[in-house]
Structures are given as C-alpha cells and as structure tokens.
Amino acid sequence: MSTSELSSLCERLAGEVADRLQSGRAKKWRCPAELRLRIMSYARVCGERCEPLDDIARRLGLVESTLARRLRAVRRSLAAEFRSVSIVPATDESETSSEAHFRLVTPRGYRIEGLDAPTLAFLLKVVG
Questions:
Q1: What is the DSSP string of 25-51?
Q2: Backbone φ and ψ of 82, nearest 5°
Q3: Which of 61, 77, 123, 128 has its CA 20 to 30 A from that of 111?
Q4: Across 1-128, where does the E strand assignment appear?
Q5: Per-residue pLDDT tens for 108-122?
C-alpha cells in the first residue's frame, strides 16, 4: 500500500470515527465491529512501517491506550490460531531419497509437496 493510499485511508477512518463520536449520546462510545476491523488493519500496517502508536492513534482521533489494547487483543487472537504440527517419517520409497523433500499442509487442507528446506523456510516466512 502506497503512502498516498494509506493517507487517504486514514482520512476516511478518522472521519468515520469523528462522525460516530459526535453522534453518540452514551457516555462510553462503542466502536462498531466493522469499523474496528478496518482501524486495526490500518494500525497494523502503520505499525509494520515502524510508526509510533501515539501518532497512529492521534491521526485516527483515538486514545492511544484504547488502540494499544485492541491491537494486543488482535495479536492474542492471531497467536491462538497457530496449530501444532508433527514430523513423521516418509512412508513411500520415492520420498526417502538422499535429497530431503518436505510437504506443507495448511490448516485449510491445501497441500504443497516436494519442497526443499530453503524453499519451505521462505514460504513459511512469507505466508506467516
């Protein structure tokens, strides 16, 4: 995402936050789930660009502690999605050659076979 796209996204989000804050009559404002997801996505992208959290919160019109708490909750939920894996010996004669080949099976059941160790490491780094 380019800097100009990120800036325009921030302006739209800040406008939505301001509109919802002004229209709210309750003492404690509740952010709608859809808006919260977009704010968290934006904040994560900015955080990956090493922008300070207080700058991100200020641009959005939010309190830094609220944004930090929401980002921690997102990180916890992402960490909870990791699954355990098992390494098992190959059962096929063709898979036991001198050259090691790995098979990756995603949680959704996609299979990627015949990977060497550097390719597998790169794929895991890119995917997640």
A1: -SSS----HHHHHHHHHHHHHHHHTT-
A2: -65, 145
A3: 77
A4: 102-105, 111-115
A5: 677 777 877 788 778
The amino acid at 115 = L
pLDDT tens, position by position, 55-77: 999 999 998 998 999 888 888 77
Cα dihedral 36/37/41/47 (nearest 10): 40
Q: Which neighbouring-strand residues pair with 105?
A: 111
| Residue extents of the structural domains in the chain | 3-79, 93-127
Given pLDDT bands bounded at 50, 70 and 90, which one contains residue 26?
low
Query: Which helix (H) or strand (E) covers residue 59, if one does?
Result: helix 53-60
4 within 8 A of 29, measured Cβ to Cβ = no
Amino acid at 49: R
* CA-based nearest residue to 66, from 39, 45, 47, 42: 39
